[in-house]
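Why do we care about 3D structure at all? Because function follows from shape, and shape follows, mostly, from sequence. That is the central idea of this module. The next example makes it concrete: a single protein chain, its amino acid sequence, and then its structure expressed as tokens.
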Amino acid sequence: MSARYLTTTLPYVNADPHIGHAVEFVQADALARSWRAAGDEVFFSTGTDEHGQKIYEAAEKAGQDVHTYVEHYANEFRKLGTALGLSNNAFIRTTEPRHYAAATEMWRRCDAAGDIYKKSYTGMYCVGCESFKTEKEIVDGHCIVHTNLQLQEVTEENYFFRFSKYTDQLLEYLSRPGTTIPKWRREEAIAFVKEGLEDFSISRETKRLTWGIPVPNDDSQVMYVWFDALTNYISTLGWPEDTEGNFKKFWEEGTTLQVAGKDQVRFQSLMWQAMLLSADIKNTDTVFYHGFVTSGGQKMSKSLGNVINPLELVKKYGTEATRYILLRHIHPTEDSDVTWERLDEWYTANLTNGLGNLVARVMKLAEDNLPIDNYSWIDSIKEVSEALEQFNFQSAMDYIWARIQKLDQTITETEPFKIIKSDSERGKKLIDEHRIELLKIARRLEPFMPDTSKKIGDAIKTNKKPENLFPRL
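And the structure:
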């Protein structure tokens, strides 16, 4: 048994959860469940990022106290985790005292390493990104990410982190193939380093922003939200005190994985890794980057009216069907396009008429013709596990659905419902084989659709046809 650490990024709590959050959460959950099934000890963390100018301004716009504002959205993300059936055993908020302590210690360590200095700076600031933009990140006077926001020219005295100092060490880290997946994201990170790293600001003046973690020994500054938030990956483990030993077990001695969106490469694979190097802490073993979800060929936005709220998905299709959709029909690393029409098609074809109908067929035959048989053997799910180790959620699900379709076809071809009338023993043997194959399918579904897996297993154990698993829309 090995110790494995797994974390999502922390959603920024300035808006409702979106489908991209759900994709990341469910991908991570499938990995965690697969590892636990293999006997590994897993620490799976999610949480919320709650500081920064965007949040402070959003709270003001909403006419709310900022503490009340972030509490509401933290609860929304907890609600999403429950709705998606996540098995995370930690939820870290960056406004918690334990996180304040960790972020403060991270600052002290980087400062002690000579990597923090103060200087006056003038630059173009994007509130959407919560960061100053370099020339290559500005097009027609706008940030390349938030094209609808006006950049602000800001002059202030900030603390800076010596990012440029870690050029060679970051290139060495990125030279290892498994550190950043998929490989083209690793190549992207390497190219960014080779273009030249610029030291980045890690604080803001309190006269402009008070909503943040205070800089040690300087009450005129608060920590830049990214410097603060990135530390969550170890504050969730109890670092620096580590009274329960989770940091030692899961980070220092275990295998670590961070799951993030494709726009996070600079932050997760470069800035965070440089901070870890500065603080003399082991680098993340692997960062996996997923793609974005679009709708109707366009980026989702409220103005276009094409936003798909994950809680609405769960309300319409249920938790298990939502997990199925996000894991099988969203590409693991490329962008994927989703519309309500496609969602309905996937649900009806593959769940209602596919898996749901198959379970009903097999278990009706078994209930009418076979005694209870409590199968005691444990089947290997090697094919699924190997696909998940490559972060190929679609491939794993396609493999399972190929078995579902094959079993359905076999029943149609062998017609055990006819054979049982003329040759009882042969008919029973066929039905038992189908029931065993259904159990194997259920076992392979467990990391992806745990409740469905259990319902099928329970139906086989009691030899009873279950209630309709996936009702018609």
